[in-house]
Amino acid sequence: MDEDVTWDDLINLPIDPPLKRDICLKCRRPIAVCYCKYLPSERLNPLCKIVLLQHPAEEKRCLHTATILSLSLKKEKCVVFTGKKFPQNRHTELPDILNSPNTLLLYPSLHAVDVQDLPKVDETSNFYYTLVIIDGTWAQAKTIYNKSTALHSLKQVKLSKRQGSEYIIRTQPTEGCLSTLETAAEALSILENKPFLKTDLLKPLAALCDYQISHGAVIHESKELRLKNHTYPKLIGKRLKKLLEKTCVEETDLNEIVQSHNEKYEKTKLFPMRSTFIT
Ligand SMILES: [Zn+2]
């Protein structure tokens, strides 16, 4: 037996087990729900750069909008760092990014500036923004922010044009909540004054939602809307109430709504069953 040949055979063995045949190798979704044909034919090259600080659990979600973002933008325009705290030793490029004066953190705190009010950038600008977005659920994003003191000194920005999410398959906590992809798309199109950035980036998401709806998925109204329509199927606990207080579009009658919802729930317990969420 020729030892060299055997050795060559061994090194050529794939390290990972082969992927199932019906999974798209690009978006890693089942072929039936692959969105790749809706991605931009050429990766988009905005002037600004997106940096995602991704919670490890987010990466595993089936319908993970950050993947659409990174497949749609040129590689150097969308950089992902994973962790529950930032920066860590392994995030070698991150400290420089966080120390740059043109780095913005998209985080809707009280003193965050509206993206709309920032100086716009174009091809003649001598500066471009780096937009840092925390990719996770609201609760995860808040914990990451609190643990990552390096983020506290960044200029904080928010999107105030609060349209409901088009990403209707995953339940958003409130009407103004957007997915990571929608947040990035909206911010980029405003900062560069290029509406096509938003439309091109959101095409795969729209296609995916259309597909899922036509195949029987429930349109997931936000919890805020379901509360107002009296269709939220559970008692409102302290955590959800706090979250709603922070992010509700109209905060004025929230206490009243929550109180009457919980009273009604206790009395009747006749709320509809929670639908199965597709995430
Ligand atoms: Zn695909």
From TrEMBL:
The keyword Acyltransferase does not apply. Its EC number is 2.5.1.25. It catalyses: a uridine in tRNA + S-adenosyl-L-methionine = a 3-[(3S)-3-amino-3-carboxypropyl]uridine in tRNA + S-methyl-5'-thioadenosine + H(+). Residues 20-217 form the DTW domain. The keyword tRNA processing applies. Transmembrane segments: none annotated. It is an enzyme of class 2 (transferase). One of its GO terms (biological process) is tRNA processing. Keywords: S-adenosyl-L-methionine, Transferase, tRNA processing. Pfam families: DTW. GO terms for molecular function: tRNA-uridine aminocarboxypropyltransferase activity. Belongs to the TDD superfamily. DTWD2 family. This is tRNA-uridine aminocarboxypropyltransferase.
